[in-house]
Design brief:
Elements: E1 7-8, E2 12-15, H1 22-29, H2 44-61, E3 65-70, E4 76-83, E5 92-97, H3 106-121, E6 127-131, H4 136-144, E7 148-155, E8 158-165
Antiparallel strand pairs: 1-2, 2-3, 3-4, 4-5, 6-8, 7-8
Length: about 170
């Protein structure tokens, strides 16, 4: 069994998903407009399988997605972390927040923490984020953290632009 670390920023706790996160996760992933770029909407049964996949990714890869908790409220407000399905060209830093978590700079804060964790704790040489060209919010986060947009590739039959995060140690 893999141990999932807890990471903190000034306003956020990045932690393992807990069973009590599921209702908030299911509500979040059911919103087709809000989750159009991450495979939503999903009805509750499929949301459960998606939730379990997020947790299982840690066992299979040794890294994965963190639940994002707002320190001030203790609320689940999204997810951030490493995503690397078997058919991905390379691991990515993926992120998505709930409507309640959006617009407060939380995504940028969480991704910055993931970049630090990626390069300084995990000692990876490189990491990307795959972002749909229509996903302006995620593109803006990528720009704010210094990612450089590159090639357009296909993932799961959909176009995705590779945004490479510079390694601060290079």
């Amino acid at each position: 069994m893999v141990s999932i670390p807890t990471l903190e920023t000034e306003r956020l706790i990045l932690r393992a998903f807990k069973p009590e996160d599921f209702d908030a996760y299911a509500d979040f992933i059911a919103d087709g407009e809000w989750t159009q770029f991450i495979g939503g909407p999903l009805e509750r049964g499929k949301a459960w399988r998606s939730f379990a996949t997020l947790i299982g990714h840690w066992t299979l890869r040794g890294h994965g997605m963190f639940a994002v908790e707002e320190k001030s409220s203790g609320k689940f407000i999204g997810m951030v972390g490493h995503w690397n399905p078997g058919d991905w060209p390379e691991p990515e830093i993926a992120y998505s927040l709930t409507k309640d978590g959006a617009g407060k700079g939380y995504a940028t804060e969480a991704v910055r923490k993931m970049i630090d964790h990626t390069f300084n704790t995990l000692k990876w040489e490189t990491v990307v984020s795959y972002i749909d060209d229509n996903n302006i919010g995620s593109q803006n986060v990528a720009k704010r953290v210094g990612a450089v947009a590159g090639d357009l590739i296909e993932l799961n039959g959909e176009p995705a632009r590779v945004h490479r995060h510079p390694n601060p140690n290079k």
